[in-house]
Design goal:
Blueprint: E1 3-9, E2 13-20, E3 30-32, E4 41-42, E5 44-47, E6 53-55, E7 64-66, E8 78-80, E9 88-90, H1 92-111, E10 118-122, H2 128-140, E11 146-149, H3 150-161, E12 168-173, E13 178-183, E14 189-194, H4 201-216, H5 218-221, H6 228-247, E15 253-260, E16 263-270, H7 271-292, E17 298-302, H8 309-314, E18 319-321, H9 328-342, E19 356-358, E20 408-409, H10 411-420
Parallel strand pairs: 1-10, 6-20, 10-11, 12-17, 17-18
Antiparallel strand pairs: 1-2, 2-3, 2-4, 5-6, 5-7, 8-9, 12-13, 13-14, 15-16, 18-19
The chain binds adenosine-5'-triphosphate and magnesium ion (MG).
């Protein structure tokens, strides 16, 4: 059946959703499994020694590009490999376009046909320069797509299940990015600010990490930083801190196992402690949002970090939180693509469905804990992306060429997809 495709290339995670064009009834957007974290795929492109980009599995950081979607419009290229003639300099929009191309190919292979249209959600701060670069890069890899700001996509998704007559506030908190926006009834972006210095998901991971460090004191501080086992320990600890943070969205206490050379030690952390650590950052985000989103009818919380109960409890006014806020933007991108193809008149009025609501009337407050039912699959995102990769010990020089084709599933992804499909 003909379909449209929405794509969200986040700093850590790329997600896709399709929306059917034929058939009876309303077309619910369907997130597409891409074999990686949270049903998407890590926003990572690893340039292999064959000169092709492998998608989704961060490899050697010197040859792996991450975090590129937030750098579109930045004139500094992303350098892969050593700072010599062998280095590859890639523009952020080219890498983002490759990611979109790969997603479109994956989905087309499953659906048996190309999408009738593609919408790529983008950061609300993009001006005409960034959008122009993105359009050009997409065309150069054979992808025709429309661009829609993320808060507008979030509003499209919201409007699918709940009508709004005035304007909608969109509070977005992902792994690295915070934005506060207002979207009008006609899906126009009325106002938006991005918090450059605003803490987001990775900073909350750091807060858990600092709690572990403070709890263990010298036992951790005295480890030999040059020992590869110490690096392994810290890498695992960072992933476990992120997992503990996610667990605290659904439970009031958890613990982090630290595998010290002398034996494993469990460091407990309560939700109350975590909230104490992140409260100043949350208050700052809420204050930034309150300055932008005055007089909005409702506020929708989107992005993976919106799952943190303190965020929903702190946001002002009437607050709507979806069960899987990290998919709100991509679902909305698919709905926006459908609207672009079919026109607005084809959509019936929304039927209000499974959304949780908080109002500043205390009698209407809902318990914001226990939201993790759909989170079981949401595994750790890749580590914080390096911006400029300056290798200390240079890897072997590879003979690489710029590749805009031949993106291949890596082994792990192929296995994950095969087991997902029951093959
Ligand atoms: N249950 C949870 N509780 C707290 N945080 C969570 C939970 N689930 C996911 N996250 C966090 O959400 C973040 C990922 O969110 P999302 O997928 O919206 O980010 P992104 O789109 O890749 O990044 P960005 O929007 O910042 O560019 C990660 O920091 C992750 O740890
Ligand atoms: Mg995002």
């Amino acid at each position: 059946m003909p379909y449209v495709l929405g794509v969200d290339v986040g700093t850590t995670r790329t997600a896709a959703a399709v929306c059917r064009l034929g058939g009876a009834g309303r077309a619910e957007p369907e997130p597409v499994g891409l074999g990686g974290p949270g049903g998407g795929v890590a926003s990572a492109l690893h340039l292999t020694s064959d000169g092709v980009f492998a998608v989704g599995e961060p490899g050697d950081p010197r040859w792996t590009a991450t975090g590129f979607s937030r750098r579109v419009g930045d004139t500094v290229p992303i350098v892969l490999g050593p700072e010599t003639a062998g280095a590859q300099r890639c523009a952020a929009e080219e890498l983002t376009a490759l990611m979109v191309m790969w997603v479109a190919d994956q989905v087309a292979a499953r659906e048996g046909e190309r999408p009738a249209h593609i919408v790529l959600a983008h950061s609300p701060g993009w001006g005409s320069h960034a959008k122009g670069l993105m359009h050009r890069a997409l065309r150069s890899v054979g992808v025709e797509a429309s661009l829609v700001p993320e808060p507008v996509a979030a509003a499209e998704n919201h409007a699918f299940s709940r009508s709004f007559a005035g304007s909608l506030g969109v509070f977005s908190l992902g792994s690295h990015a915070f934005s506060a926006s207002v979207v009008g009834r006609g899906f126009e972006l009325v106002n938006s600010v991005e918090g450059v210095d605003q803490a987001a998901g990775v900073d909350f991971d750091d807060a858990v990490f600092s709690h572990v460090r403070a709890s263990l004191g010298r036992a951790l501080a005295e480890l030999d930083a040059d020992d590869p086992r110490t690096r392994g320990l810290f890498g695992r600890l960072r992933r476990d801190c992120e997992a503990a943070k996610r667990a605290l969205s659904g439970t009031v206490e958890t613990s982090i196992s630290v595998h010290l050379p002398s034996g494993p030690v469990d460091v407990p952390i309560t939700r109350a402690k975590f909230e104490e650590l992140i409260r100043p950052s949350v208050d700052q985000a809420v204050a930034a949002f309150a300055r932008v989103a005055t007089g909005v009818e409702m506020t929708v919380l989107v992005g993976g970090s919106a799952r943190i109960p303190l965020i929903a409890a702190s946001a002002p006014g009437r607050v709507v939180l979806e069960a899987a806020p990290e998919t709100s933007v991509v679902r909305g991108a698919a709905l926006a693509a459908r609207r672009l193809v079919l026109g607005p008149d084809r959509e019936p009025e929304p039927i209000e469905t499974s959304i949780m609501l908080r109002d500043d009337d205390p009698s209407l407050r809902f318990p914001v804990g226990g939201l993790d039912a759909a989170d079981a699959e949401f595994t750790a995102p890749p580590p914080r992306p390096p911006v400029d990769i300056t290798p200390l010990d240079l890897p072997e020089r590879r003979s690489v060429k710029r590749v805009v084709r031949g993106l291949a599933l890596t082994g792990g992804q192929r296995r994950a997809r095969d087991s997902e499909d029951g093959r």
